[in-house]
Amino acid sequence: MQPVTQSPSITHYENFPVASLLCPPALRPPIAAIYAFARTADDIADEGDAPASDRLADLTAYRMELHATAAGAAPHARWAGVFKPLAAVLRSHQLPVVLLDELLSAFIQDVQKTAAAAGYAHRPELLDYCRRSANPVGRLLLHLYGVHDALALQQSDAICTALQLINFWQDLSVDIPRGRFYLPEADCTRHGVQQSDLLAQQLTPASVALVMDCAQWARSEMLRGAPLVHQLPGRIGWELRLVVQGGLRILDKVDRLHGASLQKRPRIRAWDAPLMLARALAM
């Protein structure tokens, strides 16, 4: 239940559980169709050297194609490989189109923010971005599994928001040089850190406190949503345990760097797997 990642590290949904071994075989085609939809949109928004105006035009056309497909129109040739299988899933599983549209609105916002080298004023503004860039993925997966109760959706949102925040704090060293500022301006001001300080990527007591504070914010969101694993039976419950522990493990590494994720991207390594599995079992 990972978020759609949009950082310039181009993870391409490396955490998205696409047709994984823990996923029931019957759900692998619809999950793959959702993945292809999001992955292609990410490529439009983030790959290559096209100017922002071209990316925005293509994302607008892609958005129009989504709504045309949902209305029953035959997909155009340009993205037929995406929208033909997605059309089948929209019919067979009654996917909420609004969730797919919200993903695209987040991609569009990301292009606009990057082009302007603009940041986020405060945490609620960044959380609204997460609500559209990350939370729809969890809700789409719960929809496929037939889980619709309000508490599960709230906990899913918390996990997906946490995963998006974790991705931001993991990728500071690659986002900031490319003009992507996800550390909220209000938090920067509170800790006495200016945008020029971040661009310099120098560790100071203030920048360390800022990064550690934001990492703790992400951890609290993850822990708020983690009880969802006890509501989901079978494979999805085990998959979600591993997703949660993967996110927490990244935060462990951010904490261990003590602010140096401004300069170095922490990664999950093969030797982290036993610890993550043990923690998942302990849940």
From TrEMBL:
Gene3D superfamilies noted in UniProt: Farnesyl Diphosphate Synthase
Keyword field: Transferase
Keyword Transferase assigned: yes
SUPFAM superfamilies xref list: Terpenoid synthases
InterPro entries cross-referenced by the UniProt entry: HSQ_synthase_HpnC, Isoprenoid_synthase_dom_sf, Squ/phyt_synthse, Trans_IPPS_bact-type, Trans_IPPS_HH
Any one GO molecular-function label of the UniProt entry: squalene synthase [NAD(P)H] activity
Class of this enzyme: transferase
Superkingdom, taxonomy of origin: Bacteria
Record-given protein name: Squalene synthase HpnC
Lineage: Bacteria, Pseudomonadati, Pseudomonadota, Betaproteobacteria, Burkholderiales
Gene: hpnC
